[in-house]
Specification:
- By secondary structure, this protein is mainly α.
- The protein contains 13 helices and no strands.
- The chain has helices at 2-14, 19-28, 40-54, 59-70, 75-87, 97-105, 110-127, 132-139, 145-153, 164-173, 180-194, 198-207, 212-218.
- Helix 7 crosses helix 9 (145-153).
- It starts with a helix and ends with a helix.
Length: 222
């Protein structure tokens, strides 16, 4: 049933393959994934057409649909899964965090994690703050750098709703990390929160030891 539902999307994507752009995309993401070679704006239009023709998946089969696309070899299918998730965001709740977090650690790279963390997961945490300690507090302690990154950036668009104490606590927990993507996440989270409270960010950066990359990213727009 899931494959029948997704078959039109698979055909749409296959009909827009571009071998030259596929090779460029593969090199850009360090040869970790295969690609069809569909540029993001085109992929989004194709996904929108698919949704218009076939509708969004029902909530009871959303996970299966997303997992099916996640298991496809070409990276566009994981990005298409994120397109579907974005359109289904209002249906997501605390019960979805376990399977969404599995996506964080499977076929992990910044291009998927940076969509999942502040959008799907971030929106659930904003609506249900009582569950954050059960997940994000554990992710920041996990050895997986993508879970660490998720814990640091899930509040990216919270603005004045940011739990600043938690943000700073997570940052300080990983401030000495040598992982590029963790250092970058720290700087990004601080730079984003600086749009809401620049004085607080400047004070934090001035009084705490951060890696040069994190500090540079945090103060990029000062």
């Amino acid at each position: 049933m899931i494959k029948n539902y997704l078959l039109p999307l698979i055909k749409l994507y296959d009909s827009h393959k571009d071998e030259e752009y596929a090779e460029w995309s593969k090199n850009y993401l360090r040869n970790q994934f295969e690609f069809l070679g569909i540029r993001a704006p085109i992929r989004r239009k194709l996904t929108s057409q698919f949704i218009k023709d076939n509708g969004l998946p029902d909530k009871d089969c959303l996970q299966a649909v997303i997992y099916f696309l996640w298991d496809m070899p070409e990276r566009e299918f994981q990005k298409g899964a994120l397109d579907l998730l974005a359109k289904s965001k209002k249906t997501l709740g605390p019960e979805d965090i376990p399977w969404l977090s599995n996506l964080i650690v499977k076929k992990s790279w910044w291009d998927t994690v940076d969509e999942l963390a502040p959008h799907s997961i971030g929106s659930i945490f904003l609506a249900h703050p009582e569950i954050i300690s059960s997940y994000a507090d554990k992710w920041i302690e996990d050895e997986n750098i993508w879970l660490q990154r998720t814990a640091i950036i899930y509040q990216l668009f919270y603005k004045d709703k940011t739990d600043v104490e938690r943000l700073y606590r997570y940052i300080l927990r990983r401030a000495d990390s040598n992982e590029f993507f963790v250092q970058k996440a720290i700087g990004w989270a601080l730079r984003q929160y600086a749009k809401t409270n620049p004085d607080a960010v400047m004070s934090f950066v001035s009084t705490h030891s951060l890696k040069p990359l994190s500090r540079r990213e945090a103060l990029k727009h000062f």
